Amino acid sequence: MPFVTTEDGTEIYFKDWGPKDAQPIFFHHGWPLSADDWDNQMLFFLDKGYRVIASDRRGHGRSSQVSEGHDMDHYASDASAVVEHLDLKNAVHIGHSTGGGQVARYVAKHGQPQGRVAKAVLISSVPPLMVKTPDNPGGTDKEVFDGFRSDLAANRAQFYRDVPSGPFYGFNRDGAEKSDGVIDSWWRQGMMGSAKAHYEGIAAFSETDQTEDLKAIEVPVLILQGDDDQVVPYKNAALLQDKLIKNSTMKIYEGFSHGMHTVNADEINKDILDFLKS
Q1: Which of 107, 121, 177, 237 lies at a CB distance of 3.0 to 4.6 Å from 222, suitable for a disulfide?
Q2: What is the pLDDT of residue 250?
Q3: What's the rounded Cα separation, in Å, for the pair 221 and 128?
Q4: Is the pLDDT of residue 203 over 90?
Q5: Three-state DSSP state, 99
Q6: Distance (Å, rounded) from C-alpha 57 to C-alpha 250?
Q7: Can you give the residue ranges of every domain in the chain?
């Protein structure tokens, strides 16, 4: 399997499909998942003639279950290691949830300075800051994230069944069509990873202030989120991203869930494709 070894010895797994001379799209997955969460999009954009790449974050999926480095700086640096290894240029970086934070940090700190990034897409993404603070009154109470940590430590297997069965895909809403396959795939991806990486990753996605990352981004950015996102409330995410990013386009989908790139893939894929061609 293809791996890149980072400066601190962490092995990062990646997929790389399609013609090497095509424009590359790099997908960044959410917590606590893996590159497999992008199967739909990778096949769709591969069919449209793009080169598609996705990696497993450190401690997630098939990447090394290392003890240290479960923070946004390392996440972005690890993604940069894959980009540099493959010598990707004119790339589009697409991130979901925590992966959106990873994209923002990568583009601001690595992609733009290196001249390797063309555009970015943030889907249901965590920046600028999830946790409630005096300066971020619209954020989520820290006790919610403390509850995530408690549930993960007590019974990770059950917690990773409850999240996709409920709020992640909106399967807890009246009239929702629950997909056992989608739930099973979420559980499988989560259980492949490291409990320590996932535990510490909760602080990374909820407590990292990425205001300056968003302000630093110069490339065109497409911001997509559902107004029924029960995991990352859109008023404290997409709306603020649109205000902070210089060159952004935003679309809010009525009734769509946090995991809309999976359960509403046809519409999301079309809108991303239109953005790439614009």
Answers
A1: 121
A2: 98
A3: 14
A4: yes
A5: helix
A6: 26
A7: 3-277
Residue from 64, 97, 125, 185 carrying the catalytic annotation: 97
Indicate if 34 belongs to the active site: no
Tell me the pLDDT tens digit for each residue of 67-107.
999 999 999 999 999 999 999 999 999 999 999 999 999 99
Q: Using CA atoms, how far apart are residues 228 and 240, in angstroms rounded to an integer?
A: 17
Joined together, the tokens standing for residue 21 give: 């001379």
Catalytic hit among 60, 74, 258, 261: 258
Q: CB of 223 within 8 A of CB of 127?
A: no
Is the separation of the CB atoms in 199 and 152 below 8 Å?
yes
To the query of whether residue 21 is one of the catalytic residues in this protein, the response is no
pLDDT band at residue 1 using 50, 70 and 90 as cut-offs? low
Cα–Cα dist 110/257, whole Å:
30
The reply to whether 198 belongs to the active site is no
Query: Is a pLDDT exceeding 70 seen at residue 204?
Result: yes
CA dihedral 264, 267, 271, 272 (to 10 degrees): 40
**Contact call for residues 46 and 30 (beta carbons, < 8 A):** no
What's the token pair of residue 37? 């969460």
